[in-house]
Design goal:
The chain is an alpha+beta fold and 206 residues long. The chain has one domain. The chain is built from 4 helices and 11 strands; from the N terminus they run H-E-E-E-E-E-E-H-E-E-H-E-E-H-E. It has helices at 3-16, 125-131, 156-164, 177-187; strands at residues 38-46, 49-59, 70-78, 81-83, 95-102, 105-112, 136-145, 148-153, 170-171, 174-175, 199-203. An 8-stranded antiparallel β-barrel has the order 1-2-3-5-6-7-8-11. It has a two-stranded antiparallel sheet with strand order 9-10. Strand 9 and strand 10 (174-175) form a beta hairpin. The longest helix has 14 residues, at 3-16. It starts with a helix and ends with a strand.
């Protein structure tokens, strides 16, 4: 899975659906995974064009927000040119996420609202976001080994099956956080995450 696919998929979840209403752990009491900080990159070739993708992960230091919140920004570089995400911006939308650990499984809670990624750029904006009825999260798993970051999205087909057979409980259109945590404790994530097309990035030295 290329990084653009990951960003688009996570963003689209806030338009067409999502996983949970809230992060799987409370950001106010959670510790951030310091190994995620930095510049991650990967490259691919499509139609003879060489593209490199750069993901920058940093801390959200906005006043009043929990210290465990991360910020994520993406830049694409193709054929010696910065490739625009939109007509006006070469930088992908800033996204915010928190991390949760369930057993040995590490998870990203990507924060969003009804039609877009969450905006946590203002003081106390996380508290405001958490009280809104439109708040929601996309859940991904990740692992870091030898400076290589691997991210896996939830597989929609696996998710649908788990909801249909009653393994995962729902609250309206959302998965119950406690139900998902219990499933992840028992399965280690293999029954719900997409193992076929993970996003793989290497940490840059700078």
């Amino acid at each position: 899975m290329r990084l653009t696919t990951f960003i688009l998929a996570a963003t689209c979840l806030f338009v067409s659906g999502c996983h949970t209403r809230r992060p799987l752990s409370d950001p106010a009491t959670s510790k951030s995974d310091q190994n995620l900080f930095g510049h991650w990159s990967g490259s691919s070739e499509n139609a003879g064009k060489r593209r490199s993708t750069h993901l920058f992960i940093g801390a959200n230091t906005v006043e009043g927000n929990p210290e465990s919140i991360f910020e994520l920004v993406v830049i694409l570089y193709e054929d010696h040119k910065i490739r625009n995400f939109t007509d006006s911006s070469p930088i992908g939308p800033k996204m915010y996420f928190t991390t949760t650990q369930v057993g040995n499984l590490r998870l990203m809670n990507v924060l969003g609202s009804e039609k877009e990624a969450a905006d946590l750029s203002k003081p106390n904006s996380y508290a405001t976001w958490s009280k809104r009825d439109t708040s929601r999260c996309a859940i991904c798993s990740y692992e870091i080994l030898n400076d290589v970051l691997t991210i896996r999205m939830i597989d929609d087909k696996k998710l649908g099956t788990l909801v249909e057979n009653g393994t995962l409980k729902t609250n309206g259109d959302f998965i119950s956080e406690s139900s998902l945590i219990e499933l992840l404790r028992q399965s280690k994530g293999d029954v719900i995450f997409d193992d076929a097309t993970p996003l793989v990035l290497k940490k840059s030295a700078d």
